[in-house]
């Protein structure tokens, strides 16, 4: 039974109600020795407590998009594959231009909570060895006759950890917010791309390539981008790509953009952090060498030349704002870092209300970094 489905949610409610009714109906009817009666009554109380906790968990999970499946929840899902050593480039020395075009089959997502127009495919990464679902939303303009020869820019969306790619559509309602903004001309019509980021069950891959363990970096920056370019009117030009994330995804967005200015020209970090050790389950945060090499501030300052990337960092205090200020102080042209203070804590509704500003900011930055599609 699907962890996030309405059927399971309804079942948890039924069980919780039954757990309340049963003690009233059976408490005085339990027979046998005193020890047996006490045991049965204790079990009824425990059953009521467990079902109540389960209902709350399912509600929180559905509201925040934490886990997609039982495998993710129990830490048994492994989407990383063999994770070969791909070297510094993250491509294993292969040129994307020489790889065959990969045609994917997309199906409309049958989930009213995700809104209309979201497509889903299962991608097997030809470079990274990872695999998983990728959600794509095409703006209405994509299929209009007036734009049949237009190319569109793409925004890759990263959730927190634990986190589901579906949260951008189910919880953040990103396409519903973009509709009026696109119609008003304030925001460009983007192709939205939300790939799986939980590749190792209960472990945070840290958006890194760790040979023999996971190639999360190449999955997101090479395989997913190439697949989108192969199947939609989107180029691989970095001026046509940005990456946005919240919490752990904000860390990933900033790090991937600074590390790969040849793949992204802009990024948005919503309540992100610089030091990967800020996430307790981060593989890069637990290893001293990986922690240093994947710290966002170090990625920026150790670049041979300042990356041609624009970053918007938002947050409150140490939760995104102060890390953003550190990046702004270290940035040298052509790197641009804007820091925006928020309030309300580390919460989904805070990031949700930042979407209009963030996408309007991206439109300005991407227009300046490259050409306007059309």
TrEMBL record:
Molecular function (Gene Ontology), one example: hydrolase activity
Record flagged with keyword Transmembrane: yes
Residue ranges of the TM segments: 6-27, 39-60
This protein's UniProt keywords: Hydrolase, Membrane, Transmembrane, Transmembrane helix
Superkingdom of this protein's organism: Bacteria
Key word Disulfide bond present: no
Organism expressing this protein natively: Streptomyces albipurpureus
Protein name: Alpha/beta hydrolase-fold protein
Entry-linked Pfam families: Esterase (PF00756)
Organism ancestry: Bacteria, Bacillati, Actinomycetota, Actinomycetes, Kitasatosporales
